[in-house]
Design a protein that fits this description.
The structure holds two protein chains of two kinds. By secondary structure, chain A is of the alpha/beta class. Chain A is 37% helix and 23% strand. Chain A has a six-stranded mixed β-sheet, with helices on both faces. In chain A, helix 2 runs parallel beside helix 4. In chain B, strands 3-2-4-5-7-6-12 form a seven-stranded mixed β-sheet, sandwiched between helices. Chain B has a five-stranded mixed β-sheet with strand order 9-11-10-13-14, sandwiched between helices. In chain B, strands 15-16-17-19-18 form a five-stranded parallel β-sheet, sandwiched between helices. The chains are: A alpha/beta, B alpha/beta. At the A-B interface, helix 1, strand 2, helix 2 and helix 3 of A face strand 8, helix 10 and strand 21 of B.
């Protein structure tokens, strides 16, 4: 089992907290020693929200150092691009849910919002691998994080990160109809 | 699986994946804490969240959200001198509010014990500065722990409360943002379930508790004595230890060491794992007073030592002067670049510091900077936020040369584009005082100040009373959303969740404020008129711009079984691209396509309809077919 730095990002309100909680629990269940940290507070109001997860033996701090992320998990395209530039290591992997939340600058026309091509070019320039996720069968945008989890299970980027364990984590965090709907995404 | 609110007070030991702040709540239950008070502020509010998951009838302690940090401190003090083990916690700058009372605590006997948890914020992740509260510990003679991990935070709390009770001394537990929020597996101990009997044992003989002239010197003398006994505790404390992961051999004929504390300890251990070289690390996580003998021994055993600490040069100044007095031969290095006195010291930044002093071990080339990326995402008010309607409406009333004064709260975000309102900020509740100052000798430019409703009660009142007395000529807009929104919707005096709601209107009336208008911010035209009217009023005036926090409201709505999402839509045939909705009102739900067409992001839109009135050609309406 390899030591790994996982960096998660999105826009406040998208459910990064839930994504991070499922990730850290599942990695822990898979037998890794885990350390993580979420950003809280001010950033929740429509700003960038991130979460760090480090798994493996030689891990002391919960913070992924800049440019050292093996895997980037993003809930939004611009945030995915930001993380590729600032956090992904050369040759890293990125999986992102392709929704677009424009910034104030984007809407005012001061700075352009990145296209899919521009995004994929940036990943290639760092020798990285990219997986785009977009599903039209998701009834609630707050379930986009589960769509990413189910894709991560299939990709097998993290040894031992299985469907069963991911579902176990979800079952600890949710209940009732919400849980049922989320499980349908696997 | 047990609910969190059951687990956290479960008497038997357990282990779990848990955040630092939550671990502190468990530690309080294990330590037998009786009274906990706070005013919410990042990075600490999750401590309260964890305590409040336990229903009142099962909660073995008294918890209070106080009006502000100073009141919280005084409650904890009062409870402690009555014999109850007490805790007060708040964010870094909260200590500024509390300090008038907090600074006295180190001089007195905390009969039942008192632990002060500070949420310092290196990196200013959610604060207006990154002040280093270790200074305060020195100024007020209060021993301090600085845990590096959630596990250590849990253990440090238990140790701090033990020492506090033993010596009747207040103890600071200085957390930092990413220790508060870090998550890891923690093994907890057991809780003693013997019921605590609150006996009011206060006795002035346990004091003095009155720092009048006669007792000032005796109290101060006692504080020095207590700090000396703490030094002995620090010598043997497990929180001060040497890490030698790769042995202690010489490198190039020299023995090398680093002295550090708190989270940089982890960064350095990580750096050492990279190079696998025998550099020793002395971690001083019981950091004030630090153990002189232990530090002396460490310095004497090494030829070169670097002191690496987050933020100010505190350990560095103290240890260097100590080494000078003791004529210790060791060459002591410290940070040279003032950039390194700012922000958090993660492994990349400690590597940079190490590489400047020992480049042969820590290769300077490895200290890489991540590439720049310029497409910032500034935090924004939520879709439907009443503050957005307020800013949009107030802007219509503002003369071009008006001066706007900001304050702390979600409405601080009004400073960003496109509203650009609230052009200065000092602290919570500063706005009325600052506005009064701006009004002096000024009959040319209109002045408008903002304040939130929680802040109104927290620290707003004295400056408002002053404005009434002198009838300073400015408009105060109270941005009322019925909650303490920014920190996670905690109750306040005017929210009606604790006791009976205190009416802001009645408070203002009783002060004798002559001009008071109240309006729901969604009535934008009326709000614009009121603000114009307030500018015509000579003297102090107040406009209460009210709308419930829509983030809180929507969270409630979404939990309902019969909840149906609602949205607005833009009639593309009517739209003439005035762009008011997307550029001036600027709800994040609006998207502007490359071809200029404006769309609605339905993932974000909550269908509140506050945007409808902003369209000059009424192209926005509720989505057809939705109720």
């Amino acid at each position: 089992m390899k030591d790994m730095n996982i960096y998660m990002t999105g826009v406040g309100g998208q459910g990064i907290g839930q994504l991070a909680e499922v990730m850290i629990r599942t990695c822990n269940k898979a037998g890794y020693s885990v350390k993580g940290v979420d950003t809280h507070g001010l950033a929740q109001r429509g700003g960038t929200v991130v979460s760090h997860l480090r798994i493996g033996k030689k891990v002391h701090t919960p913070l992924v150092p800049p440019g050292q992320a093996d895997i980037v998990i993003a809930l939004e395209r611009l945030e995915a691009l930001r993380a590729v530039h600032t956090m992904m290591k050369d040759g890293g992997k990125v999986i992102y849910y392709d929704v677009q939340y424009q910034t104030v600058d984007n809407r005012l026309g001061d700075i352009k919002y990145p296209t899919i091509d521009e995004f994929e070019e940036a990943v290639k320039a760092k020798g990285g691998e990219v997986v785009r996720v977009f599903r039209d069968d998701i009834p609630d945008p707050r379930m986009q994080n589960t769509a990413l989890i189910s894709e991560i299970v299939k990709l097998g980027w993290i040894d031992g990160f299985s469907k069963e364990l991911a579902i176990e984590s979800l079952e600890e965090l949710m209940q009732g109809k919400g849980l049922e709907k989320n499980l349908e995404l696997f | 699986m047990k609910k969190f609110g059951e687990l956290i007070v479960q008497p038997d030991p357990w282990e779990g994946l848990i955040m630092g702040n939550h671990a502190l709540a468990r530690a309080m239950f294990e330590a037998g804490v009786n009274v906990v008070t706070t005013y919410p502020g990042s990075p600490t509010p999750e401590i309260a969240d964890a305590i409040l998951t336990v229903p009142v009838d099962k909660r073995p302690l008294h918890f209070e959200y106080a009006t502000n940090e100073k009141v919280a401190t005084e409650i904890a003090f009062g409870a402690s001198i009555n014999g109850h083990l007490s805790v007060v916690f708040f964010k870094s700058v909260g200590l500024n509010v509390a300090s008038d009372s907090a600074v006295q605590l180190g001089l007195m006997n905390m009969v039942g014990g008192l632990v002060i948890i500070l949420g310092d914020d290196p990196g200013a992740n959610s604060s207006q500065n990154e002040q280093d509260n270790r200074h305060f510990a020195r100024m007020s003679y209060i021993p301090t722990f600085e845990p590096a991990t959630p596990t250590e935070a849990y253990k440090a709390f238990l140790e701090a409360s033990k020492l506090s009770k033993k010596y009747q001394i207040p103890v600071i537990l200085r957390m930092t943002t990413h220790v508060c929020h870090a998550k890891e597996i923690i093994k907890f101990g057991k809780i003693d379930t013997t019921e605590y009997k609150y006996e009011p044992i206060f006795d002035a003989k346990n004091g003095p508790f009155l720092p009048i002239t006669k007792s000032v010197f005796p109290l101060k003398r006692k504080a020095f004595t207590r700090i000396s006994s703490m030094e002995e505790e620090a010598e043997t404390s497990n929180f001060n230890k040497v890490y030698s992961p790769f042995g202690s051999d010489k490198i190039n004929g020299k023995r090398l060491g680093v002295i550090t504390s708190s989270m940089p300890v982890l960064s350095l251990l990580e750096n050492l794992d990279e190079v696998e070289k025998p550099v020793d690390v002395l971690a001083l996580n019981f950091s004030y007073p630090w153990p002189k003998n232990k530090v002396k021994g460490f310095l004497e055993a090494h030829d070169e030592v670097i002191i690496i600490e987050e933020l100010d040069r505190i350990m560095e100044s103290e240890i260097k002067s100590f080494a000078y007095d003791k004529e210790i031969k060791c060459k002591i290095y410290s940070r040279t670049d003032s950039e390194d006195l700012m922000g958090e010291l993660g492994p990349d930044r400690t590597w940079k510091i190490l590489s400047e002093i020992w480049p042969e071990i820590f290769n300077p080339k490895v200290a890489q900077k991540a590439s720049e990326f310029n497409n910032p995402r500034i935090p924004q008010m939520c879709p439907g936020c009443g503050h957005r309607s307020a800013f949009h409406a107030i802007k219509q009333a503002l003369p071009k040369d008006a001066i706007t004064v900001g304050d702390i709260g979600c409405h601080s975000l009004g400073f960003f584009k496109p509203y650009n309102m609230g052009e200065m900020l000092l602290s919570m509740g500063h706005s009325s005082g600052t506005a009064a100052g701006l009004s002096i000798g000024n009959d040319k430019r209109k002045i408008l100040a903002f304040i939130g409703d929680s802040t109104f009660f927290h620290a707003g009142l004295p400056a408002i009373i002053n404005a009434v007395l002198y009838d300073h000529d400015f408009t105060l807009v109270i941005m009322e959303n019925g909650t303490t929104a920014m920190t996670g919707h905690q109750p306040h005096a005017g929210s009606g969740e604790i006791g009976e709601k205190i009416s802001i209107d009645k408070v203002l009336e009783s002060f004798g404020v002559k001009f008071i208008r109240r309006v729901d911010t969604y009535q934008q035209k009326k709000l614009t008129e009121y603000v114009k009217e307030s500018f015509d009023h000579k003297g102090f005036s107040v406009v209460i711009a009210s709308h419930p926090c829509m983030l809180k409201f929507m969270r409630g709505q979404r939990k309902k079984d019969n909840y149906v999402p609602k949205h607005v839509e833009i009639d593309q045939n009517t739209c003439e691209n005035h762009n008011v909705c997307v550029e001036d009102f600027a709800c994040p739900s609006f998207i502007k396509n490359d071809d200029g067409k404006i769309m609605v992001n339905e993932d974000l839109c909550i269908g509140d309809g506050s945007c409808k009135q902003t369209c000059p050609v009424t192209a926005i309406d509720f989505k057809k077919g939705e109720k």
